[in-house]
Design a protein that fits this description.
single chain, about 90 residues, mainly alpha, flat, 3 helices, about 0% strand
Length: about 90
């Protein structure tokens, strides 16, 4: 029934309906917490709907990082501006 080691993964430990339930809980957890806190707003709904697309934008960055993981060249960043915390707080 289970594949032999080392090909055994935790996905085979539980049936597919169990994993579907876990995914559903993960998707609904954020909106349910916001609704429970009574801080619901249309902007929050847009954020929940847009978040998966935001996550997809990191896919090319991740692939580039994996592809270039062997490059260990470091370049020093020269900082030319002198900004104090007071300057930041003013703006």
């Amino acid at each position: 029934m289970f594949p032999s080691l080392p090909f055994y993964i935790v996905g085979y430990s539980f049936p597919a309906w169990f994993w579907s339930l876990i995914v559903l809980i993960q998707i609904l957890f954020g909106p349910l917490v916001v609704m429970h806190e009574k801080k619901w707003d249309y902007k929050i709904l847009i954020g929940f709907l847009a978040y998966p697309f935001y996550c997809l934008t990191w896919l090319p960055v991740t692939i580039a990082g994996i592809k270039d993981s062997g490059k260990k060249e470091w370049a020093h960043t020269v900082h030319t501006r002198n900004i104090t915390i007071e300057d930041i707080e003013k703006s």
